[in-house]
Amino acid sequence: MKYISTRGDRTERGFCEILLEGLAPDGGLYLPTHYPKVDAATLSAWRGLPYPELAFAILSLYIDDIPAADLKALVAKTYTPGIFGTREITPLKPLEPGVQLEALSNGPTLAFKDMAMQLLGNLFEYELGRRGETLNILGATSGDTGSAAEYAMRGKQGVKVFMLSPHGRMSAFQQAQMFSLQDANIHNIAVEGVFDDCQDIVKAVSNDLEFKRRHKIGTVNSINWARLLAQVVYYFAGYFQATRHNEEQVSFAVPSGNFGNICAGHVARMMGLPIKRLVLATNENDVLDEFFRTGTYRVRGSAETHETSSPSMDISKASNFERFVFDLLGRDAARTRQLFKTEVEDHGAFTLSREEFARIAEYGFVSGSSTHADRLATIRDTWQRFATMIDTHTADGLKVARRHVEPGVPMIVLETALPAKFAETIVEALGREPDRPAAMRGIEQLPKRFTVMRVDAQAVKRFIAENA
Ligand SMILES: *Cc1c(COP(=O)(O)O)cnc(C)c1O
Which of 65, 136, 326, 453 has its CA 20 to 30 A from that of 269? Predict the structure, then answer.
């Protein structure tokens, strides 16, 4: 399998070549040259496979530059009950008839990003070891991504993490999750500013190409193809649990921000998994809902980006979205480039032609958005009727899912975080604290390891140079 860019660079690269890279050189995103089709016999053979074996079967369709035995071992050590809590790894939990949750957030940081990031940590360690190289991962986080990256990379050979976060602005729990890590290869940098300042520093450091090369700076952001690929697996796993034979269809509802999670659903559907609808749910930051309703994609400025109680979906620009548009346009790279490079970069928006917009239906997408009041009502209702506590992001997904339930088509709502991560809103909705997994009790009291720095890219560079 080879990979090409959405913006026309047709140089074909192998999986391991793009594993450690971000954007393609022409500014596009990497996609496989084609989606392997899974026929009925293969689906039948995969039904009933344990999660790690299913993951290996799917990944090996896309990865042919790691020996099969090695890939199998990497997958087997990633998806274990010890790390993800159950043998199923992503078990379904029934709610009302026809609607179930798929639990994706029982990994080390209690959010679905662990599903991909844990694999990425093992792939990075393997590939760097094979090449005899090292990598310094630099990132900015306001919560979920940074902690998932740190827990995936802690203790890994050849990898160090430098994670910037806004000092004093994360929840006590999120801060404790990251800052309590004592691993020598994890560096928490608390920046005396806001999240945008952290991101600006990352950009400034990455734009210094000489520094970037000398210190082997890399990233683990959500445009990484390996992350997306790892997420394809749980769409298959959810389908097999919700159905008994391959003539049945299901729909998935996905709380969305950067379009990474639901893009994996799109890939699964393109491979032939019988998915009827992909229900995209946003919060008040409804860039994507607007697109699927109107055909206009209009990115927002930071002044127009709301801080909500489902903060991991507070995005103004969906970094993976170009992948879907490329497929929607029949893989017309020139048109994709025009929309994303010329129109979005220069004017902040594009609108599809009528014919282009009409094709969306073939891809199964529908969408909706919800508000803080909706989240509170959904969390309360789910607790009262089903004694199930859900987090704010999952509540967005469930709320929108209910508008798209069809008779005879199971609706699977992806649970993207545990309520323990968002205690403040749970207390507001239910008047009680969420339960915490045993391993997370009292983490606020653990010793913390972090360095406070001013908003100063030079100081961050010095810190990296000293510790890399
Ligand atoms: C990252 C995240 C999302 C959004 O996922 P995308 O892949 O960016 O669309 C939703 N919910 C939670 C809890 C997250 O951490």
Answer: 65
